[in-house]
Amino acid sequence: MYRKAGIEGVNLHTLRHTFANNLIMQGVDPRTVREYLGHSTIQVTEKYSHLSKSHKREAIKVLSFISEDETELKQIAKAGL
Fold first, then answer.
1. Which of 9, 46, 73, 81 qualifies as a FRET site for 64, CA 20 to 30 Å off?
2. What is the pLDDT of residues 22-68, one digit of tens each?
3. Tally of domains in the chain
4. pTM for the structure as a whole
5. In b/e form, how buried is each residue of 54-80, taking b as 16+ CB within 10 angstroms?
6. Domain range holding 2?
7. Statement to judge: residues 11 and 31 lie in one domain
């Protein structure tokens, strides 16, 4: 089925992870993702969603006091903020 669609090296589990990650990173709330995936608890859904580094960087930028300068972001990350 996957080869017919031109997708190789994946399985259903991989596609479910990708589906969950993409929804979460686009701002869909975890409870909605949980319902789509049919998970019994939100904790199961959290195991499926792994945010990318770039998504985490973008999340920090929403704070108005943070410059878009990558150097400043690294300094803030080192400080544990």
1. 46
2. 898 888 999 999 999 999 999 988 887 777 788 777 777 777 665 55
3. 2
4. 0.60
5. eeeeeeeeeeeeeeeeeeeeeeeeeee
6. 1-50
7. yes
